[in-house]
Amino acid sequence: QNAMPSAANADAYPSAPRDPALKPVFDQFGGKPGLIALMNDFMDNLVADPVTRPYFENADRNHIKAELVDQFCVILDGPCTYTGKDMASAHRGMDVDRAAFNALVQDLQTAMNKHDIPFRAQNKLLAKLAPMHRQIVTKP
Ligand code: HEM
Q1: Of 20, 21, 97, 120, which is most buried by a Cβ count within 10 Å?
Q2: Does any ligand 1 atom lie closer than 6 A to the CB of residue 91?
Q3: Distance from residue 63's CA to the centre of ligand 1 (Å)
Q4: What's this model's pTM, rounded to 2 decimal places?
Q5: SS (H, E, C) 88-123
């Protein structure tokens, strides 16, 4: 019978490679510094994207980035607290449609790829963001 690798024998064989997928998702994003770096590129993408630019060009982008870092940190089970608005209040009256929502998700994926976030970790985040369209998309 084959012994399953455990944390204990991983310590006994420190040179054995650890499967990166076994790291907590928050760590796969590089922890809080990783999220801060990710959000900088995400916001650059949102401003460069003609579909999302109109929403963000006159917004307080530094504030949004800081809130996103805390929100994603919480979503990824990191040691943070999100004190921003709920998603319905934050996006009320903005007339976000499905195309804008999808464009934002793509801009996030582009940023995650640039930061070499493993796909399985990316998908865990995206799966938690996807249902938020119910609070955010208000324009048919
Ligand atoms: C899953 C998708 C989304 C998430 C998780 C998200 C998250 C957030 C968060 C955390 C904030 C800050 C709330 C606060 O200030 O307390 C925010 C604000 C904002 N979001 Fe989103 N958002 C999403 C989709 C979108 C989309 C699709 C658009 C437009 C294309 C958008 C445009 C904005 C804008 C313009 C603000 C700033 C509002 C203000 O200045 O008060 N968001 N969002």
Answers
A1: 97
A2: yes
A3: 10
A4: 0.89
A5: HHHHCCCCCCHHHHHHHHHHHHHHHHHCCCCHHHHH
CATH number for position 33: 1.10.490.10
Is 130 domain-assigned? Answer: yes
Of all protein residues, the one whose alpha carbon is nearest to atom 1 of ligand 1 is 129
Domain containing residue 106? 24-136
The total domain count for the chain is 1
Q: Is the ipTM of this complex over 0.90?
A: yes
Q: Is the CB of 125 under 6 A from ligand 1?
A: no
Tracing tokens 């949102």 back to the chain, one arrives at 46
Using a 6 Å cutoff on CB, does residue 66 contact ligand 1? no
22 Cα–ligand 1 center, Å = 31
